[in-house]
Design goal:
The structure is a single chain. The protein folds into two domains: 197 residues, Alpha-Beta Complex (2-enoyl-CoA Hydratase, Chain A, domain 1); 49 residues. It is 53% helix and 15% strand. The chain has a six-stranded mixed sheet with strand order 1-2-3-4-6-9, sandwiched between helices. The protein is globular, with a radius of gyration of 19 Å.
Amino acid sequence: MDTVLKTIANGIGTITMNRAEKRNALSAELVKGLHAAFTTFATDEAVRVIVLKGEGPAFCAGADLAYLQRISENSPLENLTDSTALKDMFQTIVECPKPVVAMVHGAAIAGGCGLATVCDIVVASRENALFGYSEVRIGFIPAIVMVYLVRKIGDTQARRMVLMADNISAEEALGLGLITMVVDDELLHDETMRVAQQLAKNSSSAMALSKMMLSAVQGMSLDAGLHYATVMNALARQTDDCKEGIAKFLKSNKG
């Protein structure tokens, strides 16, 4: 059985983690499958926006027991190879030129919370979604995703989540800025797809350039950021989408 499923409809590519019996816990196979799926959709012209979701009762409940057992027995070189694969998978989502929307129900814990953290927009179930970085409880650290987490919610709240290792509700996650919106459980699918459909109406090139900028300007000085923004502004003006969009806007406002 495939650990990752892909479908495309009306410009929306859906990537589904398909390990329901394991609550979509991360394994080497699932990490590899997610990396391949996002890499494929990133260059597929039929896909304008990507939705990430999980089958069964949870979005992604972290790493499975067999995976944890394996990494505890690996050699340093084997663990470095495995850690690099995990980093590459997360970075493929971050660098994907298409907006990525996470549909979160149930547990999004440890690596699962990391997946939600790196998505552009996160829609979560009010009733049962849980978010948390539990790694320190077993002597591990959320090293890779911590880099993204600090950038997303800031140092103070990142320290709370990583060091206290508490699971928090969707409402709390919304308050921290970890996720984008909270909806009733029965509306989760429809609201997520509404968001995806709205994104799919936007210019693909403009969204890709915007995502690139949002990642790049973090950590830049004011002068460096403004210089970079000036160059990107000029570049955006030369895209076909911008030229066509301006032409349509001017035509609709004549007279």
